[in-house]
Structure formats: structure tokens, C-alpha cells
Amino acid sequence: MKYSLRRLSTVEPNFQTQLAQLLATDTAASEAVQQTVREIIQAVRTRGDAALIEYTNGFDQRNIRAASELEERDLDASRARVEPAVCAALEAAAARIRAYHARQQLPSWDYTEPDGSVLGQQVTALDRAGIYVPGGKAAYPSSVLMNAIPAKLAGVGEIIMVVPAPRGVIDPVVLCAAAIAGVDRVFSIGGAQAVAALAYGTATVPAVDKIVGPGNVYVASAKAQVFGRVGIDMIAGPSEILIVCDGATDPDWIAMDLFSQAEHDEQAQAVLISPDAAFLTRVAVSIERLLPTLERAAIIAAALTQRGALIQVRDLTEAVELVNQIAPEHLELSVADPRALLPLIRHAGSIFLGRYVAESLGDYCAGPNHVLPTSGTARFSSPLGVYDFQKRTSVIELSPLAASRLGRLAGTLARAEGLTAHARSAEYRILPDGAGAGGD
User: Fold this and answer.
1) Domain end call among 343, 366, 389
2) Is 249 in the same domain as 336?
3) Dihedral over Cα of 369, 370, 376, 377: its sign
4) Are residues 62 and 187 in the same domain?
5) For residues 423 and 348, what is the distance between their CA atoms, to the nearest angstrom?
6) 185 backbone dihedrals φ, ψ, rounded to 5°
7) Catalytic residue numbers?
8) Pair (97, 243) in one structural domain
9) CA–CA dist 183, 145 (Å, integer)
10) Which run of H or E residues covers position 415?
11) How many distinct structural domains can be found in the chain?
């Protein structure tokens, strides 16, 4: 299997230039894709189910006459079509995901000021959420669990799942996961047309408040274009793994961890950072030996060639500086004392501590969410969680005395801004001199 893997060092004078080239990625859809998606969205907005059916039949080689919704018995029956061991694994993973995300639930709160005013925050769930699940080339039941379980725990009123069914086929493992996760309704539609249906609603598919879940470039473009009409989780780029190793971990383990993300697609990124040059060489040897043993070797080879690298640093302190600069989706700290480095990491989607935790455990069953910020957006974004399906509303209740006191303050500020109606609205509540002295 032919491939090449960059070998970089921070002591090289042009290292930052080389790093910038390594990290460069264009996640924006081409203008042709965006235009196609615009047309699909407009058609679904104006023609509803008719357009949805038309695009579904054309793209997925089907012959449906109505937007296909699966019945509850179809989800329940899917369990019988899945190997018991796989179903049990989904149940176990779901239990761990629930246990983790249950700790994210936000309570409403308030406090009372001395004058009797009450200020607070009310937390409420979204009425309806839409989950997009890819179909076709691969099945992603783990994605169903990671998206639906936080929504369920948040208290979302109704969870709508859309999944494409090329030639009318949906992997039963995906439906089994939907049943386990508590998805309320499932439609066998996909692509940009499914995103448009979720955003604007049709006679058959209800409009949702937020759309989450991964998809191809057309799905990603559609999510970007309907944002504002609905919320979205993020525009995800190619998968990434960054490993920091002190040189004492089995090089085969590290090589396979790099492969675990590189096998997603040719644009995935797998990078190893170490102060030990000899260890980097041993990992390169492991890569050479192990790569031909994998079914997706061609995809991995392309990913390593395009966006993979072995980077030598002066020490682990410099490694941490690089981590924060890169802000990776997945970060493995495969070192003797990972806890010592943890407080120094400011930017990463998910952090795996120690030699024994493979990133792939986070993808499936560790508990934390695997929907993570990519392409450096961990600088300002967080993993998907319960809080993404909840809203926070400010609550203000004022006593007459507080309204009077704040009315003077607001009036002064509003007039400074030239907003007279604001000022007079606040000042109407000012009590006459001497009134309210008793705290009424």
C-alpha cells in the first residue's frame, strides 16, 4: 500500500509554515453543491412532500408515493433482526451514555434580593429535535445513541429521526439503536431534502427546532443554509486525532489509534507528537507493517499521505503548546502522568488520559459524546450534550420599590443612548418621593 507520512520537527525554521499546510482544510461546500442544495431546499419549501418524494426517489433509487414513516412495530421488530450480541452492546453503550449525560442536566434557578426582587433563569427543553443519521455506504448506530440520548434526557418533546434508505433498505442495527435511544418517529428519507423537510416542515414531516447529526457535503451544506430557521449542532469537518506520547507506549497501539480515525475518510487527520525521535521511527515501522492488514487500508493510506504527520518536539511542554494551537477533535495523552498535563490543555474536543484508553472507546461506549468540534473549532465550541437541547430564559420579577430604583437608573442610561421611549417606559414606574419607604 503506497503512502507517504510527513515527518516534522519544531526545531526546523519553517515548522510553522509546514504546520499550517498540514492543518489547512476547506470544509466549505463548492458553489455547485451550494446551488444544488439551495434549489432542493426551495423546492421542498414550496412543494412540500411532492418535492421530498421526487428527490428521494431520484437520489435513493426508490419508488415511494409518500414520505415513508416507519411504524413503532418496525423499530421493535428490528431488534429481532440484529445479532443478540450487537443488541446487548448497544444497550450497554446506551446505559453508559445516559449515565454520563444525566449529569449535564441544568436546573432552573433564582435568587431574591433584599428588596424582594426575584431574578433567575428558567431552563426548558426544545419542543422538537431532528436527528440526521447517515445511510448507504455505512451504518452508524452509535451516532443515533449519541444524538438521541442527550435530547431525551433534556426533555425534548418529540425526537424525529431521518435516515436515507437507498433502494429501500435501512440497516436494522440503526433502527435497533433508535428504539433503544427512545426516538419517537423515524422517516426513511435523507439528503438535503430531508434537512429541508425538518427545517420547514411538510404535510407529513413536522418542522423541528434543531437539527443534529452528521452527513455528507450536501447534508452539511443544507444544515448551514437552514441555520437561523432552525438551530444546528455544528458544521463538522473531517475526523481528527492528535496523540501526544512520551515514547513509552507500545508503538503498535499508537499506530492503530492513528488508523482508527484515518479510516473514516481520505480527508481525516492523524498526527502523533513526541519528543522521542526513535519512538517516532518505531511508530512509522508499525504503520508500515500493520496498514496492509486493514480492510480500509487504501482510505487510511490516502489520509496519512494528505493530512498525517509525525512531529518531534523538544519536550512535553512544547507538545502542550502545539495541542492548544491545533485544538484537535480527539486528543490522546499517552504519557506517564497525563493528569499533570490536563490542566494545561485549553483547546480539545475530547481528551483521553493514559496509555490504556483508545480513542475508539469514546466513539462507542465510554459515555461522553462523540459529536465533537473539528477543524480547530474546539477553541470556542464544545461536545454535543444535554445543554444543546435546552434553552435558558431570563426571569425578572421586581418589587415596586426595586422598579422605582431601577427606573431612575435605566432612565439615565436610556437617555444617554438617545432612546426616550425606553427612558419614559422605565420612569413611569418611579414612585413619588416618600412612597414605598416601607418596602411595599
Assistant:
1) 366
2) yes
3) negative
4) yes
5) 45
6) -140, 145
7) 329-330
8) no
9) 9
10) helix 400-416
11) 3
CATH code, 282: 3.40.50.1980
Contacts 24+ apart (CB under 8 A), 377-381: 377/234, 377/327, 378/327, 378/328, 378/329, 378/347, 378/348, 378/349, 379/327, 379/347, 381/234, 381/349
- Position 439 scores a pLDDT of 45
The reply to whether 94 and 167 lie within a common domain is: yes
| Cell numbers representing residue 319 in the block | 507538545
Per-residue pLDDT reduced to its tens digit, 407-428: 999 999 999 999 999 999 999 9
3-state secondary structure (DSSP) of residue 187: strand
Q: How far apart are CA 321 and CA 326, in angstroms?
A: 9
How many Å apart are CA 143 and CA 146, to the nearest integer?
5
Q: Is 271 within the bounds of a domain?
A: yes
Question: Is there a contact between 149 and 101 (Cβ–Cβ < 8 Å)?
Answer: yes
Is the predicted pLDDT of residue 440 greater than 50, yes or no? no
Span of 13-27, 140-154, 179-193, 305-319 with lowest mean pLDDT? 13-27
Nearest alpha carbon to residue 66 among 76, 56, 80 = 56
Neighbours of 368 (CB within 10 A): 21
